[in-house]
Amino acid sequence: MSYDRSATQALIRGAAIALLLACSTAGCEREPSDVTVAASWHLDPTSPESHEQARLQLILRDAAGHAVRGARLRVEAHMSHPGMAPVLVETREQPDGVYTASLELTMAGNWTLVASGTLADGTVITRTSAGVVVR
Amino acid sequence: MTDLLRWPVIGPLARHQRARLFLQLPLLGAAVVLVAHGLFGPQIAPRNLATVLTWVHYRGLLVIALLAIGNLFCAACPMMLVRDAARRVAHPGWRWPRALRRKWPAIVLFAAVLFAYERFDLWSLPRATAWLVLAYFAAALVVDVLFAGASFCKYICPIGQFNFLSATLSPTELRIRNADTCRSCRTVDCIRGRLAPPPLTIPLASVRGRAGRAVLQRGCELNLFLPAKIGNLDCTLCLDCVRACPHDNIALATRVPGEELVETARRSGIGRLSQRPDFALLCLLFVFGAVINAFAMTAPAHLVETWIASALGTRSETAVLAAVFAAGLVVLPLAMLGAAGVVSGLTGTLGSETVRTVALRYAFALVPLGLGIWTAHYGFHLLTGVMTVIPVGQSAAIDLTGRQILGEPLWMLTGMRPGAVYVIQLGCVLIGMLGSLAVAFQLSARMHPARPLLASVPWTLVIVLLAAAATWVLSQPMEMRAVGLLG
Predict the structure, then answer these.
(1) Do A114 and B44 touch (CB under 8 A)?
(2) Reduced to 3 DSSP states, what percent helix, strand and coil does chain B have, rounded to the nearest 5?
(3) Backbone Cα Rg of chain B
(4) Which of A6, B3, B304, B369 ranks highest by number of CB atoms within 10 Å?
(5) Contact assignment for B44 to A128 by CB distance below 8 Å
(6) DSSP states along B157-185
(7) Nearest by CB: B51 against A7, A27, A82
(8) B228 burial class (0-12, 13-18, 19+ CB within 10 angstroms)?
(9) pLDDT, tens only, B356-376
């Protein structure tokens, strides 16, 4: 194989720019805006059947363990496969930082729940559940 | 015959020196975006561009392009753009080993990709999808920087093999306009490429051909000599031959889809299909792989896997999937084609041929059905999820900038209802089945002109059984699992 020095330099420059661009997107997977708020997910039943109404309970606590009140949250339920219709529900606030919603997951398989919205002070919050298996 | 290269606008655009680059750049841009989002974006498949663009849009648009025009996605392959850039620096010094100049490596890789897709639930893993794309780029780069021509496309690339087989059903084909013109041609630029006349010094001509002469326009890198080229097998539709031909004697001609599957003549760069068992096995992998790939997404698959796990006394998902693949890709094809061959023997239509020879010849007849099943499967995901790229794109913009520069993600944008798509899926399988039946009958007519109907009966049964199986699979409730199948 034969090599061209100037072309090699051009390729190295190109690779460096690409690496820089890649690194600059490293911020894409951002930490939640408010890392002090912890979310715990409870689904009843834990493994619902397809099209069965399941009750979702999302409990928000701050770093001190106090209830986080006044949040406005929407829950997106996504299938494991891309391109499938998500299920979207608004949550209702209950006392003591508990947010509830009724979910009807429309297909058997694995789902992921994503709660996103704002806290009472306007801080953006996004939390993701562990996988939910729908039978 | 209509020559698309004679059409206004389309013809000049296709012939343009940079035509391929214009096709490749958008796909390269998409690849960069999806890899970046896959590696650094949210690891939730439906919210990540890596998984959405790869498993929903790319696959669906690919089969539509193949059926509507031809092998456009090979023509637009961004990996070849990167490879060409690298070849400006490092020129391949070796030829692809003669012993490997068959489809065997590609068959193994094709099966491996299908297996890995199921084993690791790749559709649900943005980061793994991104790494897969990167690995693909790296493999293409390494192979084609080391080996001359389009070795990666011809002998390695699983997507390429999928496209080559599917393109046998495309409505267009590159072919010569006038055989006399080719007979009088002394330069054969369509395959050798057009070289600068020696001695010539071109400052930027880092690509050099025979005796160090600059290549002004390369010829076919897949060794398809146009006067002897038949059909679309191994053709990437790059149009290098069109641009290289000094006589403007190559057409992108319309034709009857699938007709080439019946052709028995020797093909340039391939030989006779009847003497290419590797191609025939690739066909079987293409067809039975389509059924397996669709089946794995259904509820009964879970039951079958659980039963196999119980029978084998294992909880290893790899072992269970290996058993499923062995059954679906080896035992089932052997049994079905073997049985059809034996019946052919009993009915006296085998002639002097062996069961193996005849079965491998009829394997090509299954390609239309295979493409019908793939189209039904990929079409389902595309049609039901075509709009999801919008909210995912909006979400990616938020991931990147922290602001809703493209607005709040419209997660309700998806596509057609699955129920409405089911009718289209059935249509795909039905059309594929009819295509396969037609090819099988034509093959019978060529091999057994005295009794074509009788000769085609066993193979007709194979096709109908496979179509029935595919129809059953598509009617099953979907169950998209992304954790251990035994979980």
Answers:
(1) yes
(2) 65, 5, 30
(3) 23
(4) B369
(5) yes
(6) -HHHHHHHHHGGG-SEEEEES-HHHHHH-
(7) A82
(8) middle
(9) 999 999 999 999 999 999 999
What is the CA angle B436-B440-B443, rounded to 5? 140
d(CA A97, CA A127): 15
Residues 104-133 of chain B with CB under 8 A from chain A are 121, 123-124
For residue B279, what are the CA distances in angstroms to B17, B75, B418, B441?
Answer: 33, 21, 35, 20
Taking only the tens place, the pLDDT of each residue in B199-214 is 655 555 455 555 567 7
Residues in contact with A12: Cβ distance below 8 Å, sequence separation at least 6, in sequence order: none
What gap in Å lies between CA A96 and CA A118, rounded to an integer?
17
Three-state SS at A89 = strand
How many CB pairs below 8 A link A and B? 138
B255 vs B101: CA distance, rounded Å = 29
Q: pTM here? A: 0.89
Q: Verify whether the Cβ–Cβ distance A30 to B399 is below 8 Å.
A: yes
Q: How far is A59 from chain B, CA to nearest CA, in Å?
A: 22
The confidence band for A1, taking pLDDT boundaries of 50, 70 and 90, is very low
Extract the tokens encoding A45. Answer: 């039943």
Q: Across chain B, what does the average pLDDT equal?
A: 93
Residue B389 CB partners (closer than 8 Å, separation 6+): B49, B52, B53, B56, B57
Whether residue A80 and residue B123 make contact (CB cut-off 8 A), yes or no, is yes
pLDDT of residue A50: 86
Omega prior to B199 cis, within 30 of 0: yes
Please check whether residue B372 is in contact with residue B428, taking contact to mean a CB–CB distance below 8 angstroms. Answer: yes
Query: Residue A45: is the preceding peptide bond cis (ω within 30°)?
Result: yes
